[in-house]
UniProtKB/TrEMBL annotation:
GO terms for cellular component: membrane. This is LHPL6 protein. It is found in: Membrane. It is a multi-pass membrane protein. Keywords: Membrane, Signal, Transmembrane, Transmembrane helix. Coiled coil: none annotated. Its main location: membrane. It comes from Brachypodius melanocephalos.
Length: 139
């Protein structure tokens, strides 16, 4: 298999893939915030949550659902800020994954990545990193 990347490009491709994978795992894991509620351990992220309170209308009380899962709908995400964070972080993860997979294909296919494509991919990767890492830092 011929590669269109230099040695530095191959290292960039593999590091890009590792960073994109770590970013996606972090996005999907519900361990952004940890705490306790109703004497139970709870955690949640922008996309998923674990051990959350639900109102039981038949017994007229709040009970804890002790399982992990996605929010029932986009509107079920606790606030508008969390919804925005979910969209921006998801977009960033998608851009990082797109560049990483393209770079990995460049390791196997000759003439796939030129100098210009590499620069554009670097710009897209910067934007993806800014979206996924800079969400809470006032982009």
């Amino acid at each position: 298999m011929a590669s269109s990347l230099t040695c530095a490009g191959i290292v960039w491709a593999f590091l890009s893939f590792l960073c994109a994978a770590a970013s996606c795992v972090g996005f999907f894991m519900p361990y952004w915030l940890l705490g306790s509620q109703l004497e139970k351990s709870v955690s949640f992220g922008t996309f998923r949550r674990c051990s959350y309170p639900v109102r039981d209308e038949s017994r007229q009380m709040t009970v804890m659902v002790e399982q992990c899962g996605r929010y029932a709908s986009f509107q079920a995400i606790p606030s508008a800020e969390w919804r925005i964070c979910t969209v921006v972080t998801g977009l960033g993860c998608g851009l990082l994954l797109l560049v990483a997979l393209t770079a990995l294909m460049g390791c196997c296919v000759s003439d796939l990545i030129s100098r210009t494509v590499g620069r554009v991919a670097g710009g897209i990767q910067f934007l993806g990193g800014k979206c996924s890492c800079g969400t809470g830092m006032g982009m």
